[in-house]
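Page 42, continued from yesterday. The earlier attempt failed because a stray header line got pasted into the input along with the sequence. Redoing it now with the clean sequence only.
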Amino acid sequence: MQVELRHLQVIRSVADAGSISRAATQLRIAQSGLTAQVQRIEQELGGALFRRTTSGVALTELGEHVVARARDVLAQFDDLVESAKVLAVQDEPAAAIHVVGPLGPITPMLAGAVRELLPDREQVTQIAHTPETINEALETAGFDVAVCGQQPSVPIQLPPGLHSRNLVNETAYIGLSASHRLADRMALRLADLADEDWVLPNEKLSGLTTALRLACEEAGFTPRCRHRGADMATAAMMVRCGHAIAAFYPSAVTVPGMVLRPLVGNPLQRTMQLVWRPSSPVAGLADLVHAKVVKRYQTLVHDHPVYAAWWEAEAGS
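This time it went through. Structure tokens are written below.
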């Protein structure tokens, strides 16, 4: 038989217990089985480790030597195991940062900000095509940081425990063909559009349809929706060709031959929010991420003259 760590553990247990029977109880083995193990160990080591006493067993001189060295070996082994576990965790590659956001430029802005602040971390970006997709992503354990839009008419209920902070307020503009009779106006009243044909992008893609209907009803009419279910690019092309008008967030749409005009009173607005999980690596950098995204958004705004004018007059006030 070759002496192994488990045999040293047995000898230590008997020495600590001072009794074969008590040690057997602690080790949850039969007393006879433990006695046999001790005898085999003593045979391998060449002498008795224990002598019987009236209260149990006591260490012989050889036993004291073996147990003292066994304690050192077992302590070093325990230290080896613990230090290996620590190093194993340190050597594991950090999980990728999971960024979530809607269609449009603000999600790449968020992804870029996170990459700049955590350049050594892998990153996964999920473009959510619908509000439902964003909601589902916010429920997952893998989500780290996201952008989501909050509209008064269609609020998003954030899962408990998440942190959030408003980024920017966006207002939807009306897209008109450059040859439209109202294209030369700097701002439009929603009531002036009561007799127009509308193209409504897919509600799940734009999130605007419900808000638009409610705003039109408050203005005294129901929008005449001649074209439904288009994606944003198709809707913009239909507007450019003069088939209809539509509502767009101007930061996401640039089509030659189409003009964007603000609505008086800004009835179609949403608040873009930065949302993060408090346990995320991004949590400690939330202020810096927020500042970078807002700065990039403001740069984008100033590339759209009409939107820049609204921003200065309304958002900046």
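Notes: The chain has eleven helices and twelve strands.
Reminder to self: strip header lines before submitting.
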